[in-house]
Amino acid sequence: MATQTFSLPKIAARLDRLPPYGFELINQRIAQLSAEGADIIRLDIGSPDMPPPQPVIEMLQRSAANPKYHSYGSYRGLPAFRKAVAAYYERRFGVQVDPDKEVLPLIGSKEGIVNLALAFIDRGDAAIVPDLNYPAYTMGTLMAGGDVILMRLDPERSYAPDLDTLRAHPDLRRAKLLWVNYPNNPTGATCDLSLYEQLVAFCREHDLLLCSDNPYAEVVYDGYRAPSALQVAGALECTVEFMSLSKLYNMAGWRLGACLARREVIEALLTIKSNVDSGHFRPIYEAGALALNQTPQSWIDARNAIYQARRDALLAACPSIGLNAFKTSGSLYVWAKVMNGDDTAYVQSALEQAHVSLTPGSMYGPAGKGYVRISVGIEDERLQEAIVRLRAWYAKQH
Length: 398
Ligand SMILES: Cc1ncc(COP(=O)(O)O)c(C=O)c1O
Fold this sequence. Notes:
By secondary structure, this protein is an alpha/beta fold.
């Protein structure tokens, strides 16, 4: 039989528009160094290091033991979970939504962020994305064939967008979505309700859907309380808010979140999702509902006190490692300017020589050039060890 050569079909041109996921590149280098025996301390990834509340884990175990709970669920998710999300929004923010029509469970908010772009963005459309941003806003837009309009966030404005500059953007007419995220990844910047009021007014004026990505609403310090964009009167008409249990209850690996929006937005997203996924495993919804309904505020406060102490240790260390930190009251990160030099060179040198992994700010957009992001999602002893190593590394160079 003649041997045939096989040619793999050409990968879709869509992928040419997507830069490689930044963390993938960091992961590859860390894997190489680890294989060579290096003990790398990872301050790059924003994943909680502590477990979820114990009753949540026990509920997952009990529910998984039920032989009836292993079949496909509903595309709209478990009603009890949707109810728990709505009840949490009412309790925490005074926001009322219909759990059956205005809440949709997600397989982590990242999934919903990307699928929302597929639901709203056609070729030639655009999404307004903050420069600095969580990369999924950009990636979703590009995957959908749309263009990104960058909206600069500057430290001089405490990383709030400049809506007057945006108003004058020549491509504003093409935009359909406007993404914001406070408490912010990567800067940690927070906002008050007045920013959401301005954003809702701006989005109404320009027929934009305001996409408020709010996974860090409960990762806050110094007595700060984060608002929801949906607290603005009438916001539900023009706003979709994404919430997530990843950071709220240390459940990042569980992949559970939700979005809240008017019925048409939920239905459009559901049309995409029901053709892509088939909902979550029922025990995850049940445990997620329990987390939302029963976790006391004292559990969140105690967890945040640990993060706050780590943030303070990092803020104190920054001047001795050539960084000028931006003090913030939210998110899992310290955002700091490299005093002399380039963020990529700083991060590379810290990884290669101190075996401490940080994230270069330029991964979050052009405005991140010259900054680094440091995560507090790491055990206290490892964080202390990282600070010792970074100090010794920096002192050797200067
Ligand atoms: C701003 C922001 N949005 C969304 C996500 C995604 O979270 P999830 O785990 O819910 O997909 C993250 C995760 O780090 C994030 O930082």
